[in-house]
Amino acid sequence: MRSLGPSRSLLGESPLWSPDRAELYWLDLRDPALHTWSVERGEFRIALELEGPLGPLVATATPGVALTTDVTGLHALDLATGRTRALGDFSSREEGVHANDGKVDREGRLWVATADDEEAEPIGGLHLLAASDIRIVGTRTAGGYAISNGPAFALDGSEVYFDDTDRRRVLAFPATGGRTLGEPRLVHEFSEDEGHPDGMTVDAEGHLWVALFGGGRVVRLTLQGEIVRSFDVPAPNVTSLTFGGPDYETLFITTARKGMSEDELAAHPGAGGTYAVEPGVRGVPEGAWVHPV
After folding, report:
1. What's the maximum distance between 2 C-alpha atoms anywhere in the chain?
2. What percent of the chain has pLDDT over 70?
3. Which domains does the chain have, with CATH numbers?
4. pLDDT tens digit string along 38-48?
5. Cα–Cα distance measured from residue 254 to residue 106, given in angstroms and rounded to the nearest whole number
6. Which of 10, 160, 161, 218 fits a disulfide with 152 by CB distance 3.0 to 4.6 angstroms?
């Protein structure tokens, strides 16, 4: 496993591979910044004029433009310059809740995982964003979650995968349409010493890859919940991951140093870094927001 650069994010998240630019992007959610890495130029960082915590970073159909959120709303983000443009209010209509993670499915729809600001009360969930007025409406989880992460999507579109991070569970919701996702099935529940499932993605064989916050590794799960592969990461708090590279054969992994003591940081100098490994299986491109920005 190799490091992509010397910088260390407070809360590195939302890695996004751009096949057009052959570059990797990710965010520091707590110290708002856009990081970029390419083979030719290495890594560089652009401070963002947004108010943390930031939410997900997702691709759009507009070349060179991604979407992200902060506490004020949804923003278009120029990946070359870091300039942002407000697109509208982005509110869950629930006090004390923020957008924590998100992905675009294979139909071009944006799913947003929300979380309690204090990461304690089960008031977050998984929502489908309506493009017409940039509000969270439509399909959502029936239950509440203190910390929501993911999501990821079955290759055939039949399921939406979701991390109930606080309870250390990976869940699968049937993607049957309608305003509520209904009851999920349990894919896997991690023990306390294994860490908490954070970001995740799906590979070309339909298996799940899950980052373990507090666990210092990423794992590959079958859809029946069996761990069939594991990679140690040189940081205890692993936050997210995505496939990229010319043939999507590289797994990119983000980490965090948020909440770590000086002694812990000294023991784990790689905390907050971003890493790459070739896991021996290909990934698939993440979806792109289809609406004009």
Report:
1. 50
2. 92
3. 2-289 (2.120.10.30)
4. 988 889 899 99
5. 23
6. 161
